[in-house]
Amino acid sequence: MNIKTVFRALRHKNYRLFFGGQSISLIGTWMQQIAVSWLVYSMTNSAFLLGMVGFSSQISTFLLAPVAGVIADRHHRHRLLLITQSLAMLQAIILYVLFATHTIAVWHIIVLSLFLGAINAFDIPVRQSFTVDMLNDREDLSNAIALNSSMVNVARLVGPSIGGILIALFGEGTCFLINALSYIAVLSSLVMMRLPPWERPVNRTGSVMQQFQEGFSYAFNFMPIRTILILLAVISLVSGGVQALMPVFARDIFHGGSKTLGLLMAASGLGALIGAIFLASRKSVLGLSRVIAIAAMMFGTGVVIFSSTPYLVIGLPILLVSGFGMMVQMASSNIMLQTMVEEDKRGRIMSFYTMAFMGLSPFGSLFSGVLATRIGADDTILWGGGICIVAAIVYASKLKDLRKFVRQIYVKKGIIVETVQ
Hints:
Layout: H1 3-6, H2 13-44, H3 47-74, H4 77-100, H5 106-130, H6 141-170, H7 172-192, H8 208-220, H9 223-253, H10 258-281, H11 288-308, H12 312-340, H13 346-359, H14 361-375, H15 377-397, H16 399-413
């Protein structure tokens, strides 16, 4: 594996700044996330309230992402990111102050989770759309997206580990404070960027609702984008359920405790990190439509096998494989969408990606929780994995037509001259 190929997007100064600042900030984000979960459960001993906080942090993303996509297409993305990151910093500061003054209550956490979810609803599609603006050579877009995924998964591994230690030594408030301070890194990186003058979109006519309808029509009347988004939504629903039920597997099936849960989450995260590095090592977008089908099948098959094993030593490598499949499928979908989309609709398509990727996850968590009380966690996960396998087969059946459409787009954009693998 050529290291220069894996990290080639870092040759662009603006992206290098963003990568460094965002890496620090994401570690703080994951530290805060584990601290919030631990604090809520310590205060209430209620799994329901724990789930409610998780639901609150994501439902705003599902509801507001379509509007955010229109905003991303109409306004200066760099300035929008400065606003969203500043507001996220404010949320962390408020959380720390409430904790430090011993006035924090669960309703505070739920409200602040809703607030952060609303911020993320705008931040994620804007940040995804902004990736292309940081690159001088758009051929490095797929690599930058893959590096973004690897950055998230490194933080996913490092952040909770550090957070758990700090909670034990100093309490949850330390994680809230460190997260607030970590935003200085990403804000500084945004300020230091030197970007070309922003050009106001020529088609910025019509209301927000009209432009949303235009983006919706474009996405779901165009077969490649529609097909990719539907498969992504199915994988997201099931993965949300798998993550929500992981404590049940740790305690009731593998007969462990918090350390077992940590091992399970780390195995999935490590698989996702390997998947992101695999995508970063690819030199082009050629063949990604087939990679998506294989990765979705890997995830579904891994989930089915995991649901049936009573042994942790078998469950861990299976989770690594399913984590690899999930990340490769989701990141490859991001890459294909961003390379196919028309520039003036990039923000809106990324908002639909955000809805499918993150917005549906809380619904998967709620549905799996309800179903698990009736048929058990293992059978719930088994059915979820089966649904993913069926979805992957349906997607694969459309692969010939999908590649034909993608070929036409890539030839038009000059990405390829003759054929798409």
